[in-house]
UniProtKB/TrEMBL annotation:
SUPFAM superfamilies: S-adenosyl-L-methionine-dependent methyltransferases. InterPro entries: BioC, Malonyl-ACP_OMT, Methyltransf_11, SAM-dependent_MTases_sf. Signal peptide: none annotated. Converts the free carboxyl group of a malonyl-thioester to its methyl ester by transfer of a methyl group from S-adenosyl-L-methionine (SAM). It allows to synthesize pimeloyl-ACP via the fatty acid synthetic pathway. The gene is bioC. This is Malonyl-[acyl-carrier protein] O-methyltransferase. Its EC number is 2.1.1.197. It holds the Pfam family Methyltransf_11. Residues 51-147 form the Methyltransferase type domain. One of its GO terms (molecular function) is malonyl-CoA methyltransferase activity. GO terms for biological process: biotin biosynthetic process; methylation. Keywords: Biotin biosynthesis, Methyltransferase, S-adenosyl-L-methionine, Transferase. It comes from Dyella soli.
Length: 292
């Protein structure tokens, strides 16, 4: 598994600053959202509680409320400014709640969630054990986890352009699909299914891509990123290299998107932890089992 680490405070700052500009640049996020919504059709019951983790400005939360009109839909995000923006999508007739929390520490009881939805958020979490452990904890047995996240091939052109300029990390790293699948199984999530798609967005010049990343808040938050001032010559060299990658007169940017779903484990199903296995049971299920 990759040893990359994410600066969570930097992630929160990046997205907080981008809250008001996010929806001016989220064309890819909307396209991926449509694909993710199709995954929810695997859930055949009527959910009572639906979480949208990493809800951002709440577009996805509103779509979930439209799909599950009778359910309690809760938008969860770590950046308060994003949740403030999300208020505009919480309609009078189809409202959803907003909660500030991190994906690795969800403030909800065990086995209380029917559907946990997350669109392009999990790539900002480096502790997969904690992430999927929380998903397994809050999901009801048979509840659905459906999410999308970026894979390691994302922004490969920008990464290569920067590599020609210096050896610093300018682009965030993302985990492989196999790492995600292993972590889901280790957390006890059932029957995970993962698929990979690649999207290519094009721009008139490299600066437009950089402007979009900043507008989304999707800038580098890797702890190994350079902290000093960047020289103008390095920046120009990166731009020149990227210019050499034009296809049909446009600057390409690849986005590798992993789409996945899995199911909440039944009570008592073991999960791997520290080289061993842990099984959990509710207190009620153990009552009456004590020998006298």
């Amino acid at each position: 598994m990759s040893d990359f680490h994410v600066d969570r405070r930097q992630v929160r700052r990046n997205f907080g600053r981008a809250a008001r500009t996010y929806e001016q640049h989220d064309a890819l996020q909307r396209q991926v959202q449509d694909v993710l919504l199709e995954r929810l059709d695997f859930y055949l019951d009527t959910p009572e509680r639906v979480l949208d983790v990493g809800a951002g400005t709440g577009r996805g939360s509103a779509l979930l409320k439209k799909k599950y009109g009778k359910a309690q839909v809760i938008a969860v995000d770590m950046a308060v400014p994003m949740l403030r923006e999300a208020k505009q999508h919480a309609g009078w007739f189809k409202p959803f709640q907003r909660v500030c929390a991190e994906a690795t520490s969800l403030p909800f009881p065990d086995h209380s969630v029917d559907v946990l939805h997350s669109n392009l958020c999990f790539q900002w979490v480096d502790d997969l054990a904690a992430l999927f452990g929380e998903c397994a904890r809050v999901l009801k047995p048979g509840g659905l986890l459906a999410f999308t996240t970026f894979g390691p091939d994302t922004l490969r052109e920008l990464r290569a352009a920067w590599a020609s300029s210096d050896e610093q990390a300018h682009v965030s790293r993302f985990l492989d699909m196999h790492d995600l699948g292993d972590a889901m199984i280790s957390a006890g999530l059932r029957d995970p299914v993962l698929d990979v798609d690649r999207y290519t967005m094009t721009y008139s010049e490299p600066r437009m891509l950089l402007k979009e990343l900043q507008g989304l808040g999707a800038t580098n938050a890797d702890t190994t990123r350079g902290r000093g001032l960047m020289g103008k010559s390095h920046y120009r060299r990166m731009l020149e290299t990227y210019e050499g990658m034009r296809v049909d007169g446009r600057i390409p940017a690849t986005w590798e998107v992993v789409t996945a779903h899995a199911w909440g484990p039944p009570p008592g199903q073991s999960r791997r932890a520290g080289g061993g296995e842990i099984a959990t049971f509710s207190v009620d299920s153990l009552r009456g089992s004590r020998r006298r």
